[in-house]
Amino acid sequence: MPETFFTVWTNVFDRGRLKSGESALFHGGTSGIGTTAIQLAAARGARVFATAGSDAKCRACEALGAERGINYRTEDFVAVVQERTGGRGVDLVLDIIGGEYFPKNIAVLATDGRLVQIGLMGKSPSVTIDLNQVLRRRLTITGSTLRVRTVPEKGAIASALRAEVWPLLEASRVRPVVYTTFPLREAAAAHRLMESSEHVGKIVLTINSV
After folding, report:
1. Which of 61, 67, 71 is nearest to 85 (CA)?
2. For residue 56, what pLDDT band results from cuts at 50, 70 and 90?
């Protein structure tokens, strides 16, 4: 919970300024970050789209609150979002890929849209930016990492979570998504499952305290 909820809150709602009534696209919708972002954004009144790598995972995104899961292996997420929004695009994109996704993320943003980059899983960390698009549509491009934040910075995020997110958890409107658990002695099997990308949400290792 700390890793995913801290990351989503600070990037989607703090840096990304996502508000009720706006729309968002989350890449990696069935990851720990993705499942958290979908639930929090939907619970706070945003319209949500998410990408995933199979039709089954797209349906899992929709079950968590996404209006439309988009299979990035068979569909163009820009075309799908533009069609669903009447050509407007989304107000926020949260991206863990970078690289070849960057120009498509720019294309899918609405006027005054915000791209928040939190990962670089793509083939290259370097991209070419069409600054004309940034200027004409008043786009914001930002990014962050969580681990290097100072203790006071992390404390401020924790305070915001207690005020804004913990009530949603207590009311069961959002929840951490756990795909399965493994005893610590089977950590290798847990890693094999993670590498297969078949899971939705988190894989948890359990420790016997006895």
Report:
1. 67
2. very high
Q: Which residue shows structure tokens 């997110």?
A: 165
- Residue 143, judged by CB atoms within 10 A of its CB (0-12, 13-18, 19+), counts as middle
Domains of the chain by start residue, with CATH: 2-143 (3.40.50.720), 178-210 (no CATH)
In terms of pTM, does the model score above 0.85?
yes
Spell out the SS3 assignment of 141-170. EEECCCCCCCHHHHHHHHHHHHHHCHHHHH
Amino acid residing at 64: L
Torsion angles phi and psi, residue 18, rounded to 5: -70, 130
Tokens representing residue 95 in the block: 């991206």
Taking only the tens place, the pLDDT of each residue in 111-163 is: 999 999 999 987 778 888 999 999 999 999 999 988 888 999 999 999 999 99
Strand partners, 49: 25, 68
Q: Which of 139, 96, 100 is nearest to 119 (CA)?
A: 96
Least Cα distance to 94 among 164, 37, 160 occurs for 37
Residue-wise pLDDT for 84-114, tens only, equals 999 999 999 999 999 999 999 999 999 999 9
How far apart are alpha carbons 136 and 154 in whole angstroms?
A: 35
